[in-house]
């Protein structure tokens, strides 16, 4: 099996205007909190399934399956409406912007995950938490305020509504910024 040395994932594409506004929200937080890595705004997305490495055969099967899946889904509305963290609350690993509950997103994610498994990928077993990663690894000694997502949202956040229109199969280029490159794009029904 010819395995490509690249890491792949499927994500919901965010509109450019949403990316710009998320980056603006982060500016105020950057003034009082330091993270080891802030995500480049062009890399903002909502992951649906992390795939890892893939053979050409898996990629071909996946592309066909995801193309079939998106034909069963119409464009729908989403809203980013809070901040949160993954990891220890004192030293969070991931700082993210969360999405308002939307059953259509969870349904789409389940069907994309099923398509990935049918194409031979093994997916994470953790419950799905839709989010946009903004930063990684808080550097606590430089923080001047308490790490509190609700307070950060009240101070810097503003609900962002947008249409879910496109899924993207991305590959990761760790040495580049932005580091995610489009392999394939899939449009939901308009």
Topology:
Elements: E1 7-13, H1 16-32, E2 34-38, E3 45-52, H2 56-70, E4 76-86, E5 94-99, H3 103-118, E6 131-139, H4 149-156, E7 160-164, E8 166-172, E9 180-187
Antiparallel strand pairs: 1-3, 1-8, 2-6, 4-5, 4-7, 5-6, 8-9
Total strands:
9
Kindly report the average pLDDT value: 90
Broad structural category: alpha+beta
Give the % helix. 25-40%
CATH-defined superfamily: Cyclic phosphodiesterase
What is the CATH architecture assignment?
Alpha-Beta Complex
CATH domain class name: Alpha Beta
From the N-terminal CA to the C-terminal CA, the straight-line distance is: 38 Å
Largest sheet: 5 strands, antiparallel
Within the CATH hierarchy, at the fold level, what is the topology? Cyclic Phosphodiesterase, Chain: A
User: What would the principal axes of the Cα set say about the shape?
Assistant: globular
Q: Number of helical runs? A: 4
Which band does the percent of strand residues land in? Answer: 25-35%
Number of domains: 1
Sequence of strands across the biggest β-sheet: 2-6-5-4-7
Low-confidence blocks of residues: none
Order of helices and strands: EHEEHEEHEHEEE
Radius of gyration: 17 Å
């Amino acid at each position: 099996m010819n395995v490509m040395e690249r890491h792949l994932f499927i994500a919901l594409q965010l509109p450019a205007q949403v990316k710009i506004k998320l980056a603006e929200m982060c500016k105020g937080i950057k003034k009082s909190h330091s993270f080891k890595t802030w995500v480049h705004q062009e890399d903002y997305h909502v992951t649906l399934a992390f795939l890892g490495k893939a053979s050409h055969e898996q990629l071909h099967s996946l592309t066909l399956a995801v193309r079939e899946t998106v034909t069963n889904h119409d464009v729908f509305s989403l809203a980013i409406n809070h901040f949160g963290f993954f990891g220890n609350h004192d030293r969070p690993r991931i700082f993210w912007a969360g999405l308002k509950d939307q059953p259509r997103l969870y349904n789409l994610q389940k069907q994309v995950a099923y398509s990935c498994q049918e194409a031979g990928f093994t997916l994470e077993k953790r419950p799905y938490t839709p989010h946009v990663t903004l930063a990684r690894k808080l550097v606590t000694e430089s923080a001047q305020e308490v790490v509190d997502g609700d307070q950060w949202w009240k101070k810097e956040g503003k609900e962002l509504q947008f249409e879910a229109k496109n899924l993207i199969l991305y590959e990761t280029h760790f040495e580049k910024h932005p580091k995610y490159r489009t392999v394939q794009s899939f449009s939901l029904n308009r």
